[in-house]
Amino acid sequence: MPKTLYTLGYQQRSIDEFVGILRETGIDVLVDVRETAWSHKPGFSKSAFAAALATRGIEYVHADFAGNPKWLRANADSHGECLEWYDRYLNDYDEIVDAFDGLVAELHAAGKRVCITCFERHADDCHRAILADRWKGKRARRVEHLAIDGCDRLVTA
To answer: What is the pLDDT of residues 120-134, one digit of tens each?
Structure first.
């Protein structure tokens, strides 16, 4: 059976709703793929996020190396262009995808269910889908984007 990587965005969610989705899916580890794990949204900055997850038995890992670089975001003329540039950025820096692949492989080898997160609710609007797609392309793997419409419905990519 292929390994599965889950993704979930926290846009328009409370920390309780977000963690509830993770728990219902049986997620053991949340990998934060934001370059800087900071948010205006209460509960989603690194320390508070890690603490909220830990109280519910979910491990937090910050994979800042996989984030969409600030210089890239600042120079793009649109959100779509920013995502296109991130895709090209990963082409230029294979070591990012390799490091991400290694991290997820280590967690899967330990028997853990892994979910990656960033801000955008819809994976198609977020660099995490690009990263997950690269991970998926390495071998026979699955990616499932969780609760994109605010419900517990899973969308398989």
So the answer is: 999 888 999 999 999
Both tokens assigned to 96: 């990012």
The ranges assigned to domains in the chain are 30-138
- pLDDT over threshold 80, residue 151: no
Residue 29 DSSP SS3: strand
**pLDDT at 136 exceeding the cut of 80:** yes
pLDDT of residue 80: 92
Spatial separation of the C-alpha atoms in residues 88 and 48, rounded to whole Å: 32
The CA distance from 150 to 152, in Å, is: 7
Vertex 103, ends 101 and 107: CA angle to 5°? 115
Which residues make Cβ contacts (< 8 Å) with residue 79, sequence separation at least 6? Answer: 125
| CB atoms near residue 97 (< 10 Å) | 18
